Amino acid sequence: MKVGLFIPCYINAIYPGVGVAAYKLLKSLGVDVDYPLDQTCCGQPMANAGFEEEASGLARRFNDLFKEFDYIVGPSASCVAFVKLNHPDIQAKEGHRCESAGKIYDLCEFVHDIIKPATLNARFPHKVSIHNSCHGVRELSLSSPSERNIPYYNKLRDLLRMVQDIEIFEPE
To answer: pLDDT by residue (tens digit) across 95-128?
Structure first.
């Protein structure tokens, strides 16, 4: 299994440590991961601002850059959701087939659903509170949305429970 690590432009520019941590996490889980150096923006800012045509070249470039990988993993639910849900339509308008949409995963989703580790060799001796992003909840199903009458689940909480010395804040 060959994984391409997708680091969104805002993480690369503002929070590069998140990209490094994502790479280290995947490597520690035994994943054959590569980081294509020629990455650019996925096109979400342009499309969200009403300039979908400007995003089409970025969507095509993204597809070409990651076509050789079995999986694409990124530490950003909104960017992953944009690729998964919008790149196919954007590329179809130009007669291109989007291959990346079916193999892209949020980092948490990939570890939880594909790798399925029994334990995580990690410690974090602090109390944490979980914030699930709207894109992660409603577009990627990383946890159960409150507006649906379904049993509660939370993939991030499942993974955090494998970390030693962590205390998860549970609202009452």
So the answer is: 889 999 999 999 999 999 999 999 888 888 888 8
Other CB atoms within 10 Å distance of the CB of residue 80 = 28
Asked if 106 and 98 touch (Cβ cutoff 8 Å), the reply is no
- Give pTM, 2 decimals: 0.85
Is residue 4 within 8 Å of residue 34, measured between CB atoms?
Answer: yes
- The label of the residue with tokens 């010395």 reads 165
pLDDT tens by residue, 65-94: 999 999 999 999 999 999 999 999 999 988
* Cβ neighbours for 96, distance < 8 A, ≥ 6 positions apart: 60, 63
Q: Which residue, among 94, 170, 114, 106, has the nearest Cα to 134 in the 3D structure?
A: 106
Question: Counting beta carbons within 10 angstroms of the beta carbon of residue 107, is it exposed (0 to 12), middle (13 to 18) or buried (19 or more)?
Answer: buried
DSSP H or E stretch at residue 65 = helix 52-66
- Which tokens go with 29? 């889980």
Burial of 133 (0-12, 13-18, 19+ CB in 10 A): middle
